[in-house]
Design brief:
four-stranded antiparallel beta sheet, mainly beta, about 0% helix
Length: about 180
């Protein structure tokens, strides 16, 4: 991880045992990154000391693509939900024992209680995936979310690479506002 000044001079540099992702500044000035060695997000204070860590709740796998710390100190995270699906009943030539990766959006309060959760399984069909996603494979990542954002009206935007779309989600009900 590296931070440089406007002249390219490093002001912070840290080499770690594995690669890190989503290194960014959050509201309030803390820095966060996904630690691929520890499989969770870490937070650094202004002296670059680790002060906190974040993971997803309810038994889901944490997705390294996104952590947002909101102004109310809640956090938004992406997660993954692996489900066994008889894809031979969904598409011709599908694997009868395929594993399909669903996407989770989770909001946690400052005490890490889950206060909102959204599951792709409830809103997208597997066949919504773009033409280039091989639905006959044994492992199918049909959504592949890359980013979250809170819109000006406080609802959630999710960018899904394997759907070629952005979806707007009502943060109170979880309903789809638009796709």
């Amino acid at each position: 991880m590296i931070i440089t000044d406007n002249f390219g001079t490093p002001v912070f540099y840290r080499k770690t045992p594995d690669f890190n992702l989503d290194f960014k500044r959050q509201p309030g000035g803390i820095l966060t990154y996904y630690d691929n060695f520890k499989y969770y997000f870490s937070a650094l204070d202004s002296s670059y000391q680790v002060i906190d860590s974040f993971t997803i709740g309810n038994g889901y796998a944490l997705d390294y693509h996104e952590l947002l710390i909101l102004e109310n100190n809640h956090i938004l995270l992406l997660g993954q939900d692996y489900q066994q699906v008889a894809m031979d009943t969904v598409v011709p030539g599908g694997d009868s024992n395929a594993v399909v990766v669903g996407q989770i959006i989770q909001e946690q309060d400052e005490n890490r209680n889950v206060v909102f959760q959204w599951r792709s399984w409830d809103h997208y069909k597997i066949i919504d995936a773009t033409y280039d996603i091989e639905l006959t494979d044994t492992l199918i990542d049909y959504v592949h979310a890359n980013a979250l954002e809170v819109d000006l009206d406080e609802n959630i935007l999710i960018s899904s690479r394997h759907l070629d779309e952005i979806t707007k989600i009502d943060r109170q009900t979880g309903n789809t506002i638009w796709r």
